[in-house]
Design brief:
One of its GO terms (cellular component) is membrane. By secondary structure, this protein is mostly beta strands. The chain folds into 2 domains: 116 residues, Immunoglobulin-like (Sandwich); 93 residues, Immunoglobulin-like, CATH 2.60.40.10. Strands 3, 5, 6, 7, 10, 11, 12, 14 and 15 form a 9-stranded mixed sheet that branches. The longest helix has 13 residues. The chain starts with a strand and ends with a helix.
Length: 231
C-alpha cells in the first residue's frame, strides 16, 4: 500500500500520515523515532472531539497493556521504546479517525506523532441487460456501491464494437457509501461479450464479464411482420 511518510517537526517521529483499510479488515498503525531517545513509555491514543482516549501503553518494565474492554479489538504488533506499531482488528466506521503515538522521554517530555485511519469498501459489480426498441439495441447497466466514490467502467470485448449513449449517475446512501450506476447502449447483431470493472482507492480491481444476446436481423423481423399483417 502506497502512502506518504510524515515526519513531525517537533517530535521527530516517522509515521504514515494516512492509513487506508477495508471495512472489516485489520489496520496497522506505526510510529518510529528518527533518532534514538531516552524513552520511558509509549502510549497510543484515539483523538476525539473532546480530547484523547488512551488505548494502549508499553514500557520495558510492564510490557504492553491494552485498555480494559479493548483487548479483543487491538493489540501491539511490534513493540519497543523507539518504534511501536498497533493493530486494530475488524475495523468499522467508529474506528475511523486520527490517532496519536506518544514517546514519553526523560529529557524532552512527550514526543508526539499523528496518523489517521480511513476506511474503504466496495460492493459489486452488478450487471443488468435489457432490450431497447428505440434506439434499437441492448441496454447494459452496471453498478457498484462503496466509499470513497467507486469508479465504474463498461467495455466491449470486440475491437470493432463500442457502446453509445454512455451515462453515469451517483446516489449517496444514508450510511455514507455512494452507488455509481453506468448505463450504455450496445447495438450488435450477434452475441457480444461485455465487461464491467469497478474500483475504489486501495481495493483490488474487480471485473465481471457477461454475454449480451445479439439483435434480431431486420429481414427476419420484416418477414414475421408481413405474416402478421396477412392474417
Amino acid at each position: 500500500m502506497m502512502s506518504k511518510i510524515f515526519t513531525c517537526l517537533v517530535a521527530v517521529i516517522e509515521t504514515q500520515q494516512t492509513v487506508w483499510a477495508a471495512v472489516g479488515d485489520q489496520a496497522s498503525l506505526s510510529c518510529q523515532l528518527s533518532k534514538t531517545k531516552d524513552v520511558l513509555q509509549v502510549t497510543w491514543q484515539k483523538v476525539l472531539l473532546d480530547g484523547e482516549k488512551n488505548l494502549a501503553t508499553y514500557t520495558e518494565k510492564y510490557g504492553s497493556r491494552v485498555s480494559a474492554g479493548l483487548e479483543d479489538k487491538m493489540d501491539f504488533q511490534y513493540e519497543s521504546l523507539q518504534s511501536c506499531s498497533m493493530v486494530i482488528r475488524k475495523v468499522m466506521e467508529e474506528d475511523e479517525g486520527c490517532y496519536r503515538c506518544l514517546f514519553n522521554s526523560y529529557s524532552e517530555g512527550a514526543l508526539i506523532g499523528w496518523t489517521c485511519l480511513k476506511l474503504y469498501e466496495l460492493h459489486g459489480p452488478f450487471i443488468d441487460v435489457s432490450r431497447s426498441n428505440s434506439p434499437p439495441g441492448s441496454v447494459v447497466t452496471c453498478s457498484a456501491t462503496g466509499r470513497p466514490v467507486p469508479m465504474v467502467t463498461l467495455t466491449v470485448l470486440h475491437q470493432n464494437l463500442s457502446f453509445s449513449h454512455y451515462n453515469t449517475s451517483r446516489e449517496t446512501n444514508t450510511n455514507g457509501t455512494v452507488t455509481v450506476t453506468t448505463t450504455a447502449l450496445l447495438s450488435a447483431v450477434s452475441s457480444t461479450q461485455v465487461g464491467c470493472s469497478v474500483s475504489v482507492h486501495s481495493a483490488a480491481l474487480r471485473e465481471l464479464l457477461v454475454t449480451v444476446p445479439g439483435l434480431k436481423k431486420t429481414s427476419d423481423y420484416g418477414k414475421k411482420l408481413s405474416k402478421t399483417l396477412n392474417l
